[in-house]
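Researcher: Good morning. I'm working through a list of sequences from a screen, and I'd like to move beyond sequence-only analysis. For each chain I'm collecting a predicted structure so we can compare shapes side by side. This is the next one on the list. No need for commentary yet; just the structure.
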Amino acid sequence: MTTSPEELLPTTRRALLHRIAVAQSEGRAPSLVAAVARDGELVWTGSRTSVDGHGPDEHVQYRIGSITKTFTAVLVLRLRDEGLLDLADPLEKHLPDTGAGTVTIAELLAHTGGLAAETPGEWWERSPGSRRPTLADVLGEQPFRHPVGRRHHYSNPGYTLLGALVEAVRGVSWEEALRDEILEPLGLTRTSVQPQHPHAGGWAVHPYADVLLPEPSEDLGLMAPAGQLWSTTRDLAVFASFLAVGDERVLSADSVRELRTPAAPTLPGNWEASYGLGMQVVRGGGLTLAGHTGSLPGFVAGLWLCEEEGLVAVALANCTTGVPVATLAAELLGIVAEAEPRLPEPWRPLPEVKASELELVGPWYWGTQAVVLRLAADGGVEMGPAAEGGRRSRFRSNGDGTWTGLDGYYAGELLRAVRRDDGAVSHLDLGSFVFTREPYPADGPVPGGVDPEGWRGIPR
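Model: Good morning. Structure tokens for this chain:
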């Protein structure tokens, strides 16, 4: 990732700098670094520090805590894409004798497996991993806190199990799989399991006095897949940009979209926040953000991407508490999105179009509700309401005259044109729903039939 020749406007850069300056000052962070990328290019970096003459840059490592989980999720999705496992598989199919083997791989990824949030025993983040040498030590005698699949309950031991799953299926260590399958292909040279110079030290800031206390930096052992990694704003911007669009060397665009798709039930009244497969998903300020946050003693981290704006923002600080980095990273992204909204791609006509597809565009009726079908530039189709309100979905072409829903109510559903014996289109079938060219046509294939007297008024 290189800095874009078309850097942000001076006013935007000043607004970003002001925002991190306020965050570092009010949060009383020894240091804070941040970065913004657009369409895969680093467009801004900034830092604030309490040490005169020393400003950390985009190459200084900070501990990123639970952002590590997203790396682990990528490794698991790679195994799925290679056909080595299915996300619906129970864990015990690939990793037996854990005591939690009935949980599916998807439930572990989405934190819906009902497992405890933390390990038994002492505070695992501040104690060496050698005190938890086996999975039994990580899970304890009673690993479950909730019925499996019933609710979202964040679980660090769950991602320890996923790391062990990667090792069992790959036959190599989690660290080796991480290096060979993600770090090296994406060029993340400053992301590592152990800190590498230059790196920040972790600090606790007294809640009622402006004094510091160094925090320990433990090797988490088996818990590493849940929170071990160190990284930089530059590397995380590269990683987040990959999570937005995919990279065939690591995961396809479809698979990274799956990571970002909500997979866990949300709490009542909290519909704007959910969890995918290793990624948090939130909506606010008119933007949908996907990413992850992280914390370990001495460090907090936040990473967000916005697909529609092509933006990524990262914020890292070396303090245990004080800086709301998740909010900060989201606000940095929002500053750029508002001040310099993404320029749309120039409109271009399709290079070619099939007559069998072109005859499908235009208005259709689901009962009496008017919808419009449009051909998309990527070869798929889009369906949306003719007026305000109603369902809207995009569909991917299957190459055989059918399309599969990508989002909205019809995600995963099959859209197909049903033709008469003479080849003319009779109607559209979408997940068994019938769409006709006019509302309830007398001779149309409407389930339940249409009253033979047709449309009528009320006699006066």
